[in-house]
Design brief:
heterodimer; A: alpha+beta; Jelly Rolls; CBS-domain; Beta Polymerase, domain 2; four-stranded antiparallel beta sheet; about 50% helix; B: alpha/beta; 8 helices
Chain lengths: ~600, ~220
């Protein structure tokens, strides 16, 4: 306020100095004694309240939905929608800054970044962020430096070398471009196409020197230049290759195809490559490219859900093709290849491990089956899909057997629900058919659902896993970091995925992705529509953060995030997301009566 | 000691400018003014006001948006010590206004409202120093001393010989009020207003401030 109003506190850090002055001049201070209602539900808040000291309860009817402390503010809904959804009551002696509604509304209108915070709820906030990301997509792309792109080597060859020598050198370095120095004309470039044209069209002997074929009007860019400068240079000079320099030194050649691949990604190329693959070796290249796509797409600010969809689609094509190449005809006719767990939900981005299996319509030749089991799992491992530590793989006879054998298991899993059995139900319920007799999976799942959906106690025990880990948010809605880091998976993603899975199982849903299950649960009124949306947005936001954290880690499996390294906008969204997770856990606790397990 | 009402009567008779008769009328109900001066030193007869900060309190609300915040061009030279304390240099106050315009404006801001302050007597004496020769009166407004309220809530029932700390910082700490930038007349007035509202509520609810320094009920932070 006055002078000491903390303008560094989000979202006020988004204001310009002039806007902060305007706000400061308009702010009052209110004192509220314990029990005083500051904002009444349904009331049209005339002010935005920013807590200076004290504690304020956010209540929905009699239910306490949140406890706010210093620097928290409320009620954004009253400001934006004109009516408060909840009431706000001072728990103890409380002092608040009172920012007049009309001033806040003017700031929301004038300052989009500030305004983003005042959208009705977290979903709107997240959409606002997504929009800025869209606007900034080209921006962030263009901020990348040329040195970060794939470059061919800046390989020099003697100007007196022959066409043949140049051709051989190109093959050795797996590049189509060589550089050469000419005393008079400086540095020149010669390409594979120059060599071919000379020989084929001009009928030059392969012993002819290359110097006359070279071009000396070389276009160069600096390694530190931004990518957009390379794009400009190519357009301006109409060149398909640029020489990249560090100071006076040549450090690489940038080809237009690599620049365009960086800009656009090349997922459609990979899909085509998988379809045309004639051997496992062909597939191996495609598998590596799938993994590379994740980083490329994310660098373009493509969000988690889109990347997961693309990667899952490519992975399934790859698995199906592998199955087609390896499985004997008898197996392809009688079996169904399934993927389970996150792969089945379509939420796999960075590779974790294989979760796959086979369902057979009837027994097949044992030796043939054994051979296939080993070969298939080994092929995927060779492609870079790590084996599953829990051995949920085709290789394991437990996950490659007949439908009847699966059906027999289901009864055991439900009758004696230990941790293992519970996990088996969870991952099998997430399964999708990738190739072969898809009807087998459908029959298996129908049976699984039928055997558990009426079992209240079983379902509660199943849902109980959401209580395994604390959600890292305090009563005061502040983030609780351990050693400066938060676990996004344990604290947020897992409770959402598993809670949604438990509800979906209870309602016999056939959908497998968390998003599709949530939508269905919303339609069935199991979850309120706005809460469904909040959950989905939180899930996607946490997953996107996790993906970024995994991409930073070379090992690729971490799901920790350090709040101190996030921007204040990201921290705010993270806090909101965990708040939603906490509410969801409260809902599950009531819904499944988890209290009975003490 | 002269009874306050008699004093009011006396001053009202002496007022030489009917325009300021409002000072002697009761102000709007439920309103007070909290104020603070920064001065060139601590001796009212020798030193000068260099800034006045004041804020109205209406009910439980501090009307910071209707603040009174003015810098005065002092007549006397500022002591080096005072400059260190309030950080207003001669160059800063050179842009101030003459005290003969600031004081009447301040009176119009205050009206008949009671005044609230921390060691208010000093600030009132500073204002009276200019007011007396101008209008032949002293500030007639009722006065509320925050340190007295605090004393009553914290030490009112203390055994004789208790260690007593009525410092501004001690009050802020006991009441859990975050310190604003101190030694700015307006910020001091704001903090004093927050103290006043908290103390008034404690009194209304019969809650005392615990004397074992940092554990004070309900003021966890």
């Amino acid at each position: 306020m006055p002078n000491a109003f903390d303008a560094a506190n989000p979202p006020f850090d988004r204001l310009t100095p002039g806007e902060i002055e305007m706000l400061r001049a308009a702010i009052d201070v209110g004192y509220f004694k314990p029990g005083a209602t500051i904002v009444r539900a349904g009331g049209d808040g005339q002010s935005l309240f920013i807590i200076i000291k004290g504690a304020v309860e956010e209540r929905e009817g009699d239910e306490l939905v949140g406890l706010l402390g210093p620097k928290d503010f409320f009620d954004t809904r009253a400001i934006v929608q004109g009516a408060a959804a909840h009431s706000f009551v001072a728990r103890e002696e409380t002092l608040c800054y009172l920012a007049p509604k009309d001033v806040i509304q003017r700031l929301i209108r004038d300052n989009a970044r500030f305004g983003a915070f005042f959208y009705l709820d977290i979903s709107r906030k997240l959409e606002a962020i997504a929009r800025t990301e869209d606007e900034m997509r080209s921006g962030s792309l263009m901020r990348t430096r040329i040195g970060d792109l794939f470059l061919h080597p800046a390989e020099f060859i003697d100007a007196t070398a022959t066409i043949e020598q140049a051709g051989r050198r190109m093959r050795e370095i797996n590049s189509n471009t060589l550089l050469l120095r000419d005393a008079g004309q400086g540095v020149g470039i010669v390409t594979g196409m120059n060599l071919s044209k000379a020989v084929v069209l001009h009928k030059m002997p392969i012993t002819a020197p290359i110097a006359p074929l070279a071009h000396f009007d070389l276009s160069t860019v600096a390694e530190n230049d931004f990518v957009f400068e390379a794009l400009l240079e190519m357009t301006k000079s109409n060149k398909r290759r640029l020489a990249v320099k560090r100071g006076d030194e040549f450090v690489g050649i940038l080809e237009d195809i690599d620049l365009l691949g960086f800009l656009a990604g090349n997922t459609q190329v990979i899909a085509g490559r998988i379809d045309r693959a004639k051997s496992l070796a062909d597939l191996r290249i495609a598998a590596r490219e799938i993994a590379d796509q994740v980083r490329t797409l994310r660098r373009q600010d493509v969000r988690f859900e889109t990347i997961a969809e693309i990667v899952s689609d490519l992975n399934r094509r790859l698995f199906a093709k592998t199955f087609a190449l390896i499985a004997p005809p008898d197996l392809r006719k009688r079996g169904c290849l399934i993927v389970m767990g996150s792969e089945g939900r379509g939420e796999q981005t960075i590779r974790t491990d294989q979760d796959n299996g086979i369902i057979l319509a009837e027994p097949v030749d044992a030796a043939m089956l054994d051979g296939f089991r080993a070969e298939f799992t080994a092929a995927l491992e060779e492609f870079g899909y790590p084996p599953c530590p829990g051995n949920v793989m085709v290789r394991n006879p437990f996950w490659s057997k007949t439908l009847d054998e699966y059906l027999g298991n289901f009864n055991e899993w439900v009758a004696a629900p230990d941790q293992n059995a519970m996990m088996n139900v969870a991952i099998f319920y997430d399964a999708v058919a990738v190739s072969g007799r898809t009807d087998l999976l459908k029959r298996a799942k129908t049976a699984l659902i039928e055997s558990v959906r009426a079992e209240r106690v079983y379902l509660a025990r199943f849902a109980l896993a959401v209580e395994s880990f604390e959600t890292p948010i305090s009563l005061f809605n502040t983030l609780v970091a351990t050693d400066g880091a938060l676990d996004l998976k344990k604290g947020g993603i897992f409770p959402i995925v598993h809670g949604v899975r438990a509800l979906a199982l209870e309602h016999g849903l056939e959908e497998t992705s968390t998003e599709a299950r949530l939508e269905k649960l919303g339609e069935l009124n199991v979850l309120r529509a706005d809460f469904t949306r909040d959950l989905l947005q939180s899930f996607q936001y946490l997953s996107t953060l996790r993906l970024d954290s995994q991409l930073e880690e070379l090992s690729g499996s971490r799901s920790l995030v350090r709040p101190a390294e996030l921007s204040s906008v990201e921290r705010d969204l993270l806090r909101d997301s965990f708040k939603v997770v906490k509410q969801f856990r409260d809902f599950l606790r009531r819904h499944f009566n988890l209290g009975m397990f003490g | 000691m002269i009874p306050p009402r008699l004093k009011r009567f006396y001053h009202r008779r002496r007022l030489n400018d009917p325009e300021f008769a409002f000072l002697f009328e009761p102000g709007p109900e439920d309103e007070l003014v909290c104020f603070d001066c920064e001065t060139t030193g601590l001796n009212p007869s020798r030193d000068d006001i260099i800034s006045i900060g004041a804020v109205k309190i209406r009910g439980d609300r501090i009307l910071a948006s209707e603040r009174f915040q003015r810098i005065v061009r002092p007549k006397a030279a500022m002591s080096a010590d005072a400059i260190k304390v309030h950080r207003l240099r001669a160059a800063d106050v050179a842009y101030g206004e003459g005290v003969e315009t600031v004081i009447p404006d301040f009176l119009r801001f205050v009206g008949g409202r009671p005044l609230v302050g921390y060691y208010l007597q000093f600030d009132v004496a500073m204002v009276n120093k200019y007011l007396k020769p101008m209008k032949h009166i002293k500030l007639p407004n009722p006065m509320i001393e925050v340190s007295e309220q605090y004393y009553e809530r914290k030490y009112g029932d203390a055994p004789a010989g208790s260690h007593i700390d009525l410092s501004f910082a001690a009050i802020l700490k006991d009441l859990g009020i975050p310190p604003l930038d101190a030694h700015d007349a307006f910020n001091d007035a704001m903090m004093t207003a927050m103290m006043y509202l908290a103390l008034r509520d404690l009194k209304a609810r019969g809650v005392r401030i615990a004397r074992q320094t940092h554990v004070s009920p309900g003021y966890g932070g």
